[in-house]
């Protein structure tokens, strides 16, 4: 819980120094509730409009209702495989930029990651690396597409 600052105290801003704030809609799919919440806060501090889901079914529902430009998806989810979900979402949303992540150290990235998958990261993920990856896409809310409809 945030506490009030005393006179003269400074507080560091999460994500400061990581580059420009993108203000891009981002889908976060992570089954660990605590990690999902932490990443949502941190990505929100960077300007992302985070749509967080705990699994594949919830992610599908979110993307039907709200367009996204980029997605951070865990591979092992309680109701499916993040790699399959990423391929499905990429079919639905052209130019969707996806980063896959996993805490399972026995998983190896597929040798030929699909073109929509920018990279495979091991947990704990580096927020600066994620921000750089999505920032390199130039993603902007007006350029996002969902089900063929551009974001106004």
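Q: What amino acid sequence fits the structure above?
A:
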């Amino acid at each position: 819980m945030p506490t009030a600052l005393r006179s003269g105290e400074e507080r560091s801003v999460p994500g400061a120094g990581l580059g420009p704030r993108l203000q891009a809609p981002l889908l976060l799919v992570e089954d660990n509730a605590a990690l999902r919440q932490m990443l949502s806060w941190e990505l929100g501090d960077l300007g992302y409009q985070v749509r967080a889901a705990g699994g594949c079914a919830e992610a599908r529902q979110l993307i039907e209702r709200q367009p996204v430009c980029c997605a951070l998806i865990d591979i092992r989810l309680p109701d499916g495989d993040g790699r399959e979900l990423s391929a499905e979402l990429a079919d639905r949303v052209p130019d969707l930029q996806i980063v896959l992540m996993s805490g399972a150290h026995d998983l190896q990235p597929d040798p030929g990651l699909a073109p929509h998958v920018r990279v495979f990261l091991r947990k704990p993920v580096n927020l600066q690396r994620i921000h750089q990856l999505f920032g390199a896409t130039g993603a902007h809310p007006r350029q996002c597409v969902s089900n063929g409809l551009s974001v106004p």
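Q: And what stands out in the fold?
A: Confidence is low (pLDDT under 50) at residues 1-22, 139-152.
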